[in-house]
Amino acid sequence: MKNKNNRLRFITPLVVMVLMSVCLSCEKDFIEEPIDTTGVTDELIFSSSENAQTFVNGILSNYKGQYGTVDAGGLYAMYFARAVKGNDIIQDVNWYRFDYGHENREPNFRRTNFTWDFNYENINFANTLIFGVNNSSSLSSNEKREFVAKGKFFRGFHLFELALEFAPNYNNDRNIERIPIYTTPTSLETVGGNPPAPMSEVYGQIIDDLEDAVEDLPDARIGKSFINKAVAQAVLARVYSVTQDNWQRVSDLARSAYGGNATQAVQSSNWGAGFNNMQDQEWLWALFQNGSDETNFYWGHAAPMMDHLTLSYNASYIDPEFAAQFSSTDVRNTFIDIYGVSATTPWREFVSTKYAFTFSSDIPLIRKSEMVLFDAEAQYHLGNVQEARNLLFALQSARDPNATITTNSGQALLNEILLERKKEFYGEFGPQWFDAKRYNLPILRNDIHRISIDVPADSNLFFLKIPEDEIDLNSNYSGFNNI
């Protein structure tokens, strides 16, 4: 890849050190004053465990970034863009409206450019971390092992996000070539670029990196904004749920991530309390916000979009057919009609009070309940029907005191598990889009939706086109069919 117009991909250590001066924290335990980074070298950055951790903090602070527009910010923006692509949320003419309309995939659009640049930027940070740590003469072997594991987590995680966003369903064609793999650092002087690799190689790299991270990351961490073994296990469970090669591994990873006791893992006090507190035991990984130096204010995560009772964007509505899937005693039934416009504007009938928006609203990334449902899904595929039912009921009974254990089996049981994922995670990371893509399912909308587009199974609308800059500047894309 040539350096022209590669806005975010190639970041020098100096820029990273500036980034590192941004406080990430989770429990007030962070960086002091910003420092003069003139002349900072890799040797200094990786000369101590404290400095190396500061580098990691800079990567994580990127996840709450504010790049140019509200719908093209940090990791939260990617996740909410997926959330509005389903049939449960109806997005007003506001931020994310083009994602809602499935029309934000062209090679020069901001969704495409941001998603590519954001993930490759963080892959380059990861490679810089791995390279710097391995070449450090100051870090101990144990310190090197841990920081290399963190670098491999970030590389595997962001390569997975790229594979989800820029390629079709993995199991439809494992040989298709869409995205490059980078395992060494690049800089502003880098010319050219790597060729797009077969998706089998891409997922091989993802799995190798995340398996290594699971092996070497510690259980302990500073707080829930940081990564540890359980976070790596959860992300790897997501990966294997896409490849569908090893359902036993999905179950083992998910069970380790949620702690093994499903009934205890799904307990949460966030429902009905604003869904904004990362200290809830059920949240596994989240972005911390404190309302001042650690917040992205009105930027695009779910809370300012979905909360209609607080001054914010008030832009997201709920499909009435989705709302009807919840019993009246389900704590997740947060749907109310506050505008009284159902007759004239049916799509504005229901809003959700799931989120109470403040500048200090924490942002969920992974929750234990997702891992419990992955375990249930894995048990279904392994033929352990009753265990799948029990795991599903552990969540259902925690959310609804009147829930009864399902008697479904076969495809009906899998459908119920996937529906439960929609009901548990609406507004978060787009479970319907994720599940429809990996299972070759359509996304069907009723006529109530503001845009009632149907997305057929395995449609090209499930992935973004490769950015125009990449095709222009990377000669390996010569003749590429950018569908």
TrEMBL record:
Signal sequence range: 1-25
Keyword Manganese attached: no
Domain named RagB/SusD: residues: 360-441
Domain SusD-like N-terminal: start-end pairs: 78-240
InterPro entries: SusD-like_N, SusD_RagB_dom, TPR-like_helical_dom_sf
Keyword Signal: yes
Primary location group: membrane
Location(s), subcellular: Cell outer membrane
Keywords: Cell outer membrane, Membrane, Signal
Family: Belongs to the SusD family.
Annotated protein name in UniProt: RagB/SusD family nutrient uptake outer membrane protein
Annotated organism of origin: Winogradskyella pulchriflava
Native organism taxonomy: Bacteria, Pseudomonadati, Bacteroidota, Flavobacteriia, Flavobacteriales
